[in-house]
Automatic annotation (TrEMBL):
The keyword Transport does not apply. Gene3D superfamilies: Carboxypeptidase-like, regulatory domain. Residues 1-24 form the signal peptide. Keywords: Carboxypeptidase, Hydrolase, Protease, Signal. GO terms for molecular function: carboxypeptidase activity. This is Carboxypeptidase-like regulatory domain-containing protein. SUPFAM superfamilies: Carboxypeptidase regulatory domain-like.
Length: 137
């Protein structure tokens, strides 16, 4: 008796999975043959951005990897994650309105590694003041 319920539940689960896939018109790739995927080719940077004085999370701070199109914003808890980073040496910048920017220079990203980088920002200006001609004051 238990075995028939188990088979029925398993069949129902498979039916549910396949029926949900059948309704999707995009995002499904059918491939015939061998497919070698190395998920470790790209690396990941993750961490938190907080106010240095209060240790409170900074929401919507920007994290940007210079010389790439990669970047993200922090969530409600100040957490961020940037994935699919190719190996190389980068400058990583954290910025937010009302805080001074923080830049980590020459961060070496190696293939398949995960890096925890926390930023501690100080309240301050938005950046250097410039006049209408673009010259620093």
């Amino acid at each position: 008796m238990f075995k028939s319920y188990l088979i029925l539940i398993s069949f129902s689960f498979l039916l549910l999975v396949f029926s949900s896939c059948a309704h999707q018109s995009e995002g499904i790739l059918l491939y015939s043959g061998n497919l070698d995927v190395n998920l470790d080719d790209k690396s990941l940077i993750f961490g938190r951005v907080v106010d240095k004085n209060t240790n409170e999370p900074i929401v919507n701070a920007n994290i940007i990897i210079d010389s790439t199109y990669l970047g993200t914003g922090t969530d409600y808890n100040g957490n961020y994650k940037i994935s699919n980073i190719p190996p190389g040496t980068y400058n990583v910048k954290a910025s937010c309105i009302g805080f001074n920017n923080a830049i980590l220079f020459n961060i070496k990203i190696e293939k398949g590694h995960r890096y925890l980088i926390d930023f501690f920002l100080l309240e301050g200006s938005f950046g250097p003041l410039i006049n209408e001609k673009g010259i620093s004051l």
